Amino acid sequence: MPNGSDTFFYKKEIISESLRNVLLNRSTNTESKTLVLYFNSIGLKNAEILRIFSLIQTDEPSIVVGKSSTQKINCIGAKQSDYEVFELLIKAKKNYDKYLELISEKDYFVHTIKNFLSIDDFEDIKKLYIELSKKESLSYCSKKMHESFNDLFIEYKELLNV
């Protein structure tokens, strides 16, 4: 994460209230940038985080939406002052097409980044197994995390059927 970054965790059932409190109370600097990353997202590399912050640094209202192949939103980046962007994310319930429909009424330039993995059900665990078998996964998943996932995959090897 970039220097000066903060990380906040929340409970799923109170995301709307938690997000509102974090964004409204965090900073009076309207130029600060925010990245909301869902906990079940895999594949966001440090270089992409820096790219997201670079893309939203323009004078024009811009947002960056990261999505999975299943049209689920994995992350969204915007300036701190663009709280409405995040409220619409909650209304869209992580659905990329629904979010674009909601945000289209606003005057934002939308950047989309792809190829994330959203782990929503057991079928996605199989996709995670395949993804973490690739060497490039080491750029966003530490060795310790790999070992933990490996233990999980061994535990559920029969169910994975890969």
Could you walk me through the main structural features you see in this protein, from its secondary elements to its overall organization?
The structure is a single chain. The longest helix has 13 residues, at 143-155. A hairpin with a 4-residue loop joins strand 3 (62-68) and strand 4 (73-79). This protein starts with 14 loop residues before the first helix and ends with a helix. It is elongated and about 50 Å long. Helix 1 packs antiparallel against helix 3 and helix 3 crosses helix 4 (96-103). The chain has 7 helices and 5 strands; from the N terminus they run H-E-E-H-E-E-H-H-E-H-H-H. The chain has a 5-stranded mixed beta sheet with strand order 1-4-3-5-2, sandwiched between helices. The protein folds into 2 domains: 12-118, Spore Coat Polysaccharide Biosynthesis Protein SpsA, Chain A (Alpha-Beta Complex); 122-160. It is α+β, with helices and mostly antiparallel strands.
TL;DR?
The protein is of the alpha+beta class.
H/E element order: HEEHEEHHEHHH
CATH topology of the largest domain: Spore Coat Polysaccharide Biosynthesis Protein SpsA, Chain A
- Rg value: 17 Å
CATH superfamily of the largest domain: Spore Coat Polysaccharide Biosynthesis Protein SpsA, Chain A
Compute the separation of the termini in Å. 33 Å
Strand content: 15-25%
Round the mean pLDDT to the nearest integer and report it.
Answer: 79
CA-based shape? elongated
* Overall CATH class of the largest domain: Alpha Beta
Q: Helical segment tally?
A: 7
CATH architectural group of the largest domain: Alpha-Beta Complex
The figure for the number of domains is 2
The assigned structural class equals alpha+beta
What oligomerization state is this entry in?
single chain
Poorly predicted runs are none
Instruction: Please state how the strands of the largest beta sheet are arranged side by side.
Output: 1-4-3-5-2
Question: Approximately how much helix is present in the residues?
Answer: 40-55%
Give the tally of β-strands. Answer: 5
